[in-house]
Amino acid sequence: MNLPAGKTTRKIDKGKEDFVETIAELMKTSFTGYVVLTIEGYSGIEEGVLFLSNGQLVGASFEYSKFGTSVFGDSAAKQFFNALSAKYAVGDVCELSKQQLELITTFNEKAILEREISEKDLRRLIPKKYTEAYAKQTLGKTLEKQESMHSVFKRAGLTGFDKSY
Questions:
Q1: 29 with 55: CB under 8 angstroms?
Q2: In this structure, what DSSP letter does residue 111 have?
Q3: How many CB atoms lie within 10 A of CB 152?
Q4: CA 93, 98, 100: angle at the middle one, nearest 5?
Q5: How far apart are CA 22 and CA 119, in angstroms?
Q6: Average of pLDDT values for 46-62?
Q7: CB within 8 A of 41, min separation 6: which ones?
Q8: Whole-structure pTM value
Q9: Are 90 and 14 in contact (CB under 8 A)?
Q10: Given pLDDT bands bounded at 50, 70 and 90, which one contains residue 71?
Q11: How is the beta sheet containing 7-13 ordered, strand by strand?
């Protein structure tokens, strides 16, 4: 999803700052913009975006970069919250005008959340540990089709190569 750059107001590093506290603070201060989160997850680099309008969570998207696969809306929000528990994570908070955010949600209706998420719900939705289940479910058929280099070499009768391929 292409997003306007907006004004980056904060950079977040999992080791330095608590993402959940940052999002809760944005909700309290009626923030309008988005939080982008990049993690090293199950399938490599995964990136989630959570959209806020006047402090309300209004939309989400989540992308599995290696496979060019994205999910939107409530499913993306669940995957975003799961990603908050990943071992390696960095993020940015980008402020937008209300008009910019309205354009994003107008042209990306599938990103709009169907259910309202309050600040109280936020803490309950974050798992204690990152789970690969969302990635496996989302990427199911794509992962089945992906072959390792070793299996390609084996099928071609070239089995003398190191299995690290």
A1: yes
A2: G
A3: 11
A4: 75
A5: 11
A6: 96
A7: 64, 83, 86, 130, 132, 135
A8: 0.81
A9: yes
A10: very high
A11: 7-13, 89-95, 33-41, 44-53, 56-64, 69-72
Over range 71-84, report the average pLDDT: 94
Distance between CA atoms of 135 and 41, rounded to whole angstroms? 8
33: amino acid identity, one letter: G
34 contacts 51 by C-beta, under 8 angstroms? yes
The CA–CA distances, whole Å, from 44 to 38, 41, 53, 62, 88 equal 10, 5, 30, 13, 11
Hey, what are 53's tokens?
A: 């309008």
Which H/E stretch holds residue 84? none
Q: Where are the domains of the chain?
A: 7-130
Q: Report yes or no: 124 and 79 within 8 Å, Cβ to Cβ.
A: no
In 78-135 the beta strands, taken as DSSP E runs, fall at 89-95
Contact 115, 20 (CB under 8 A): no
User: Residue 53 — φ and ψ, nearest 5°?
Assistant: -130, 115
More confident residue, 111 or 68: 111
Q: By the 8 A CB rule, do 159 and 153 touch?
A: yes
Q: Does position 141 have pLDDT exceeding 70, yes or no?
A: no
How large is the average pLDDT for residues 108-130?
90
